[in-house]
Amino acid sequence: MPLDRLDPTLVSQVDALREEGRAKAPERIIEGCIPAEGALGPRYKMRGSDQAFLRMNSNSYLSLSHHPDLLKAADDAAHAFGAGPGAVRFIDGTFAPHVELECCISGFTGRPAARVFNSAYTSILGLALALTGKDTYWVGDELNHNCIIRAMRVANVPRERRSIFRHNDVAHLRECLDAVPEGIGRVVVIFDGIFSMRGDHAPLQEIADLCAGYHERFRDGVITVMDDSHGIGAYGDTGRGTEEHCGARADVLVGTFGKAFGVNGGFVAASEAVIEAVRQMADTYIYTNPLGAPDAAAAVAAVRLADSDTGRGQLANLRARTLQFRAGLEARGLESIDGPHPVVPLLVRDTDRTRGLVSNLFEQGVLAVGLTFPVVPRGDETIRFQINAAHTEADIEQLLGSLDRCLS
Question: What is the pLDDT at residue 372?
């Protein structure tokens, strides 16, 4: 057997993860969705349980995935173009919905151009490949998402051409920029818009102002790149995310259709020159299939809904339910991290207690996720609650009641 020696080694490695408390639990399987009824929002059926669950761990912030406009758009595109693309985009895998989606998201984000990928993760990887040259220097926030960390490795950025600044610490970012060595022609400052484990946001205005002061020092300037996958669509007065909330802009914006928009896929939005460079040099765009036309068409419908009275109504309820939950935590003296975003962390600061609370919530019909090391630093163990627009006032009261029982 060719795997007879490898398998035992891998089993030992996974066992070591379990002993360290770092192994992932088995995936729970959702088998159905129960539509909203009366005062309650949707509930979910899980394999192996007769309960109906309140889902507090979904990225679908605007609750659009079941909207009839999205379902119709996907169905129409599937019948017109088929379920899958059949080729990469350079080999006649580009369909009309891909182009329409790129026009739609560039308009929504206020950029001249955009390029769609099959995920935000591959968007960041591809962008890094396109922006990295022999004299490029990268500076990133210490709590950046795994995709940004991986992107620098995929782009072969050596240690001497990258640095890390303390989380949201603009003074430390200044020190990093001061320390950029001679001979660098391009500096990329990259950070998350919303830090998904915490629900806090980058100080975008301060970062942009600081970077502008260093722009003339380098041949290609200092380029700010923000991955606002959790922010775009989910907050800001009209759902434009961290840029709208902060009143500032990044030079290059990366985002996803797989969270607030409720579909799938990712994008890079920037100048026409940057987007053409991405099209020509991003391996994760060139060598892998794009979204299927049904996903792209559904994403078009989602962006249009988000930019309509319907979307703004969803956003208003999302904001109200987020404030309701945050007020409930504060009234109970529970520790969280302030912010306007619907990611609301409950800081537990203990691994075993975090896991116990998540298990107790599950027994009471609440789906939530516990975050422990290495996903978060030791001492920052957290239960992350994610408010969605389909949640009702009664849902949040149920959640707070469940927490009361778990913590009593």
Answer: 85
pLDDT, residue 1, reads 63
pLDDT in the model for residue 376: 81
User: Which position has the token pair 């928009």?
Assistant: 261
Q: Which structural domains are found in the chain, ordered by start?
A: 22-55+309-407 (3.90.1150.10), 68-306 (3.40.640.10)
Report d(CA 364, CA 237) in Å as an integer: 34
CA 65 to each of CA 35, 94, 248, 295: distance values in angstroms, whole numbers, following the listed order: 12, 24, 29, 11
**Which parts of 93-199 are beta strand (E)?**
113-117, 136-141, 162-165, 186-192, 194-195
CA 17, 19, 22, 23 dihedral sign is positive
Asked whether 294 and 95 are in contact (CB, 8 A), the reply is no
Contact between 402 and 90 under an 8 Å Cβ cutoff? The reply is: no
DSSP type of residue 23: P
- Residues 186 and 219: beta-carbon distance below 8 Å: yes
384: tokens are 């992350």
Q: What pLDDT score was predicted for residue 377?
A: 82
DSSP helix/strand/coil, 272 = helix
Q: For position 378, what pLDDT does the model report?
A: 86
Per-residue pLDDT tens for 355-386? 999 999 999 999 999 988 877 888 999 999 99
Q: In the 3-class helix/strand/coil scheme, how is 292-316 assigned residue by residue? A: CHHHHHHHHHHHHHHCCHHHHHHHH
Kindly state the DSSP code that residue 198 receives in the 8-state scheme: T
Alpha-carbon distance 208 to 61, whole Å?
A: 27
Task: Give me the pLDDT at residue 77, please.
Answer: 98
Whether residue 297 contacts residue 83, with contact meaning beta carbons closer than 8 Å, is answered with no
Residues ≥6 apart with Cβ < 8 Å to 353: 381
To the nearest 10°, the Cα dihedral for 28, 30, 34, 38? 30
Q: Are 87 and 289 in contact (CB under 8 A)?
A: yes
Stretches in the chain below the pLDDT threshold 70: 1
CA distance 134 to 130: 12
State percent of the chain over pLDDT 90.
92
Residue 403 phi/psi, 5° resolution?
A: -65, -40
